[in-house]
Automatic annotation (TrEMBL), chain A:
Key words, A-Z: Membrane, Transmembrane, Transmembrane helix
Name of the protein described by the UniProt record: Uncharacterized protein
Transmembrane segments: 82-104, 111-132, 158-178
TrEMBL record, chain B:
Keyword Membrane in annotation: yes
Residue ranges of coiled coil: none
Full protein name: ABC-type transport system involved in multi-copper enzyme maturation, permease component
Signal peptide start and end residues: none
Residues passing through the membrane, by range: 53-75, 96-124, 130-150, 157-179, 199-218, 230-249
Keyword set, alphabetical order: Membrane, Transmembrane, Transmembrane helix
Amino acid sequence: MSSRLAVARAWGVPRTLLLALLLAGMAQFVATSYVGMPSFEAEIPALDLVPPAAALVLAAPLVDQTPDLTLRAGRPLGQVLLLRYVATHTAGAIVVASLALSGWSFERSLVVVLFLAGSAVAAAGLGAWHWVPMMAGSYVWLLRSQHLDDLDDADVPVAAAAAALVAAGVIYVCAGLYRTHRTRCPRGG
Amino acid sequence: MTGRLAGYVTWLGDRRTVLLGLVALVAVGLVPSLSRGADWLGSWKMALDAGTFSLTLIGPVAAGIACATYVRLATSGVEPLLRTGPRPWWPWLRPALSIWGLAAVAMSAITLGVTTSAALAGAVPYYDTLWVLVPALCVLAAQVAVGVLLGGLGRRVWLAPVAAAATFSLGVLGAIGAMPEIFRTGGLGVTYAGETYDATTLGLQTGATLGVAAGLLLLSNRTVVGRTAISRVVISLLVLLGAVCYVVLGNGIHDRYRAVSDPELVCRGDAVRVCMARETTRPLDDLVERMERQASALRELGLELPPRYVDYLAGSDDERQGGVMLLVEETLASTVSDETAARVLTTPAQCAAYRSDIAPPEASFDTRRLLARWLLFRAGLLQPRVDDFDREWLESGLEEQRSWVTTTYEQLRSCDLDALRLPAGV
């Protein structure tokens, strides 16, 4: 096994890509379905559940399960963190493509980018517990989605998605660098 | 922290972590409880329903926490040690009990908060319905057990959010009818006026969720949990009970609430007597006040009001009394609009046609709407616009209107809805 593949496996990248493919396949399968949720006034499109699911299950590479090894990484730490972030969004891109092919506009599908950006910010602050605020946020998003008067309101402008992608990436990388710095120099030295 | 309590929460973390976990659980639980705003302020039973509905997110998050905890427990190497004890299932299940307890405290805190708020807003408490917390706590046990199973068998940290998503999905599967709704707790959106929780349905749910919880906990570590004869017997009985309840719930209709046979009413007002179900009296004083102001126009014409107006939701169907037909949001709000008060005044009899499967004649809607506008106009609460279809008639003077108003009102009182006509020229 090459060292790159070993690192990718340690980060959970192949598994995350597999989960992304599974989620993308499910999106195609439920594309025309609606689900009734307790306390929701009307049934919601099953596709609305896909972006929250992506935020929960595709963010695993963002969490460092082997911090001791990371400290001894050959590459610059910023680059390592950036690669983790890219891996997550690569998996997200598979879901974006599936949603765009299932009837959603490309702009609407970009909401997955926002969700994964949210996961990255949550992972920057909470590490392995990133999914807790994302669950609450997802529920609020589902509540908001059912009250949209116009489908165009669900569209995410490409510029907004790009801005969120960059901003969340900067926050995630900076938080990771700061955390490692504190680990190496616990008294701030 | 006392030694005993510290033992329970060892696998959750230190005291600060446990406190933060509790705060997080309360925070996420408030999201579904407040998803419809605070409309539950108008009904204590509805507030109780909103409190237990917090499990919609507390349950999945507790499942995720359980999963992460059991991954740590399963990979810590203590398992061989557990097997040597006389009751090996106890140390294995103790973290699950701690997480269940922590989530139960979060749900109870939210329930206490929303029900107290409703009581302070004037809703009458029904403490005898607090038993619905028991089925809710059993649902929570089953949700936590999902996390224990995935963590105990999967042994991967990344499974925690998957456990949370899977637990939430079980609720969705129940909602769409793919399985009996055993993971549902509250969120019905009904006012519970003249209604209460159905003990049979919730009892079956309790049995089913206990069976699911017992089965999943056994599967999470069969050698440890099923090691003693007593644990095997208890789990087998619970699973058997759960299976029976699950099958019964899956057949036929099982509503979570039922009508109360003799609902209590609360009546206010002397000049205009209005009665609402005891559960939902929040807008009653305001409704009476607005109706009294507008009813003087009817009295001026010598028309007799019904002895009382009664809330339809309270299950009353006596034609001799007026009907209070309010929308759910009107029933729960603290005030009503003048238009709503006028609408109630134009229902001087609880005609069977209003609740029949066959809609009343179209003219009955138009005439009641015009009569309501006339009441608002006479009370100085409506100024017709230039382009209003009825402006000319409304401004034509009382003598011009007397005949139509009197005839229409008497026809509404006698439920002669087919005879209702709009005045000439409108």
